[in-house]
Specification:
Elements lengths: L1 E3 L16 E3 L6 H14 L8 E2 L1 H8 L3 H13 L3 E4 L2 E4 L4 H25 L2 H20 L2 H19 L2 H21 L4 H19 L3 H21 L5
Helix pairs in contact: 1-3, 2-3, 4-6, 4-7, 4-8, 4-9, 5-6, 5-8, 6-7, 6-8, 8-9
Length: 238
């Protein structure tokens, strides 16, 4: 079962060219597949913060009825990735206060991630994190901001996976989408900023690889504070 889609993201996050087809798999409920694709599109910036989502246009693009699209949008709304503004569903656009609150929650959770990763990461986890860092370094050097953003996200995802704590991963995932949207919205595309984040990730990597949980937790707290401050510089206070 293949439907043409206007966008370029498929199930595993890899990229399609405009006009290519995306396969919706028979074994998964249709609304779940549409939800996954739309979530990727929102998180990785095809749909911008505050942008309206047309149920009918999305249904037309997938060549499906509006029912599975409506169910997919309801699931996105339950994660606060889309919100109702008047009579329209729009991509969430966090306020200054919401951004600060999101980072307070994220900081608490990410410190646990760093600590547990330093305790539990095995060589395969370490290799995955190094691969993401290498990808980020290459993307920074090439000025590919979208690729940097994705590699940085993958670094954190690999760190979470290394903890082998499904509940922790679920809690982080419940706010991760909103944070990624906010960060994409407020962080300037700056090589200086990207280099700063890369260095902070490298410091974390060394602490995890050396199995230093206390140091990793401290470095993560500092990284989160720096990330918050970077965002607030570009975020209107009102």
């Amino acid at each position: 079962m293949v439907y043409t889609t206007w966008e370029n993201t498929i199930h595993d996050g890899s990229q399609l060219q405009e006009g290519e087809d995306v396969e919706l798999r028979r074994e998964d409920p249709l609304y779940q597949q549409i939800y996954r694709i739309l979530r990727q599109q929102i998180v990785y910036g095809h749909f911008k913060a505050g942008e309206s989502l047309s149920e009918s246009r999305i249904a037309q693009s997938f060549n499906v009825s509006r029912t599975p699209v409506r169910e997919a949008l309801q699931k996105l709304a339950s994660e606060r990735l889309v919100v109702l503004r008047g009579f329209e569903l729009t991509v969430v656009n966090p306020t200054h206060e919401e951004f600060v609150e999101l980072y307070a929650c994220r900081t608490a959770l990410e410190q646990v991630v760093a600590e547990k990763s330093a305790e539990l990461a095995v060589p395969a986890d370490i290799a995955n994190m190094h691969e993401a860092l290498a990808e980020a370094r290459t993307a920074i050097d090439k000025g590919d901001h979208a690729r940097v953003f994705k590699a940085n996200t993958q670094f954190h995802d690999h760190m979470v996976a290394s903890t082998r704590m499904p509940l922790l991963a679920e809690l982080l995932d419940s706010i991760r989408g909103q944070i990624l949207i906010a960060r994409r919205h407020v962080l300037a595309e700056s090589i200086e900023i990207e280099n700063g984040i890369f260095q902070e990730h490298m410091d974390l990597m060394r602490a995890i690889e050396a199995h230093q949980p206390t140091n990793a937790k401290m470095l993560m707290a500092r990284h989160m504070q720096d990330d918050l401050e970077r965002g607030l510089k570009n975020f209107p206070s009102k």
